[in-house]
Amino acid sequence: SKQINTQSLIGLEQIRHQKVLDVGCGGGILAESLSRLGAVVTAIDPSLENITVAKEHSSMDYMTKNINFRQCAVESIVQERELFDMVCVMEVVEHVDNPEAFLYECAQCVAPGGSLFISTINKSFKGYLLGIFAAEYLLQAVPRGTHEW
């Protein structure tokens, strides 16, 4: 029988009460997961449509209804000088015009001793096939031209 490695689960407790910024939150999937783990989440996206969907979905669960969803860019958070224990930038970098400037702005939101987590499509042939060609052309899960390559 399989056993759960509780050593790795103990680390999840450290997320409780941490201030987290989810940059480019889309429909709010990561924000909801972090909220369920006890984080205090602010989730931002420049798209009103994304924020509307995320707010609607999260309002159905008492564990995620307190997420602070905002329609804005990360530059607004920088101007407000709000800092976070964790800043998450998941699958967003490939959508911005100036990745270096964007990531610099994201880093400005990290509190001293905090962490910046970044994930993006690998710039390889496999990354292109799975992340862009499949999503945009085969599955048509996102509009063509969504990703910058």
Give a quick precis of the structure.
The protein has helices spanning 6-10, 29-36, 48-58, 74-80, 99-107, 125-138, and strands at residues 19-23, 40-45, 68-71, 84-90, 110-119.
Topology overview:
Blueprint: H1 6-10, E1 19-23, H2 29-36, E2 40-45, H3 48-58, E3 68-71, H4 74-80, E4 84-90, H5 99-107, E5 110-119, H6 125-138
Parallel strand pairs: 1-2, 1-4, 2-3, 4-5
Topology, number of strands: 5
The percent range for helix content is 25-40%
Cα-to-Cα separation, first versus last residue:
45 Å
| Largest sheet properties | 5 strands, parallel
Mean pLDDT across every amino acid position: 87
Structural class, judged by helices and strands?
Answer: alpha/beta
Spatial order of the strands forming the largest sheet: 3-2-1-4-5
Order of helices and strands: HEHEHEHEHEH
Strand content: 15-25%
Shape: globular
Unreliable spans:
none
- Total helices: the number is 6
Work out the radius of gyration.
Answer: 16 Å
Name some characteristics of this structure.
149 residues, 6 helices, 5-stranded parallel β-sheet, 36% helix, alpha/beta
Structural features, described:
With 149 residues, this protein is an alpha/beta fold. It is built from 6 helices and 5 strands. It has helices spanning 6-10, 29-36, 48-58, 74-80, 99-107, 125-138; strands spanning 19-23, 40-45, 68-71, 84-90, 110-119. The chain has a 5-stranded parallel sheet with strand order 3-2-1-4-5, covered by helices on one side. α2 (29-36) links the parallel β1 (19-23) and β2. The mean pLDDT is 87.
